[in-house]
Amino acid sequence: MIKISMLYPNNKGSRFNVSYYVETHMPLSIKLLSAHPGFKGVSVEHGLGGGMPGTDAAYVAMCHYQFDSVENFMAAFTPHEAALQDDMPNYTDIEPVIQINEVLISR
User: Fold this and answer.
1) Which residue segment(s) compose the domain that 50 sits in?
2) pTM for this prediction
3) HEC readout, 6-34
4) Domain-embedded: residue 107
């Protein structure tokens, strides 16, 4: 299984509207991408704090899509890429860090 992570760094002075992301953008994204048979799941996280008490989270938000292969993620994402990216200014001015991972252990 493959996990595609969209990581939004917690940059000082940046804007990230968590409510819009969770209530509007992600339902749209899930609707579009989950129609592909390779879609296995998604999780969204909101950073609350760093590893030491009183420190900021490294990422303000993270989204993790699970697909059975990178090819299936690309097949699901590519037709909707413009619509999803065009919606980004509605919730953030942060350029996400994107990472593709092979899931080795999941319980």
Assistant:
1) 2-102
2) 0.94
3) EEEECCCCCCECHHHHHHHHHHHHHHHHC
4) no
